[in-house]
Amino acid sequence: IGEILPTIDMIAAATLEVRRNKLGFILDGMYMKLSVAGETPGPFLNNINMTATQALVEGIVTYRIFENDRAWMELLAGARYQYLENEVSFTRRFRGPQTLSAVNSWVDPFIGIQGQYELADKVYAKVRGDIGGFGVSSDSTYNLFGVVGFELTERTSMELGYRYLYTDYTQGGFLYDMAM
Question: For residue 89, which of 43, 124, 136, 172 sits 20 to 30 Å off, Cα-Cα?
Fold first, then answer.
């Protein structure tokens, strides 16, 4: 983590959830920008700068299949939009500056399950898993996350957790086989 933290320019994430009885809708988003720069050891390049920007937006329909005083479980179906932009800038010793960039985006359907358990008054643990892609855009993608949350009010909470997202996407000469 000591190598990753200095490269982070910005990370932001937010989730909006609406529910009526057993049916719900979740809009989830994340934005991340990473960059690194440095001198080059060779005689042909003076310096190099690399920037990676990634955005993710999910729209999810949920259906509650179980609920009691302390816990609930839901089935999920949704779509995940992913956007990637990579840029490499470098200064060549005899030709000056040059920038190369690539942008790609796609949408994957997915299905999954999530559940929540109340640990104490206003404190809960939530887990989610989904799988998707199915060859529509990505060959495969899966997402796992777990959080510990605190209810600030009846309608607002804060969560701290860990998310693991794997995507295997290929289009033409673009390959994104990545775990984030």
Answer: 172
48-62: pLDDT as tens digits: 899 999 999 999 999
At a CB cut-off of 8 Å and minimum separation 6, what does 40 contact? Answer: 46, 47, 48, 90
Measured on CA atoms in the order 178, 5, 26, 69, is the torsion positive or negative? positive
What's the farthest any 2 CA atoms get from each other in the chain? 70
Tokens of 140: 């495969």
Name residue 85's beta-bridge partners: 53, 103
Percent of the chain, pLDDT > 90?
79
Cα-based distances in Å from 46 to 40, 42, 43, 96, 101: 6, 8, 8, 9, 19
Query: Which strand ranges, in their side-by-side order, compose the sheet holding 96-120?
Result: 8-20, 23-39, 45-67, 71-92, 96-120, 123-132, 140-151, 157-171, 174-179
HSE of 38 in the Cβ direction (CA atoms, 13 Å)?
Answer: 7
Nearest to 157 by CA among 165, 145, 144, 148: 148
Cβ pair 151, 124 in contact under 8 A: yes
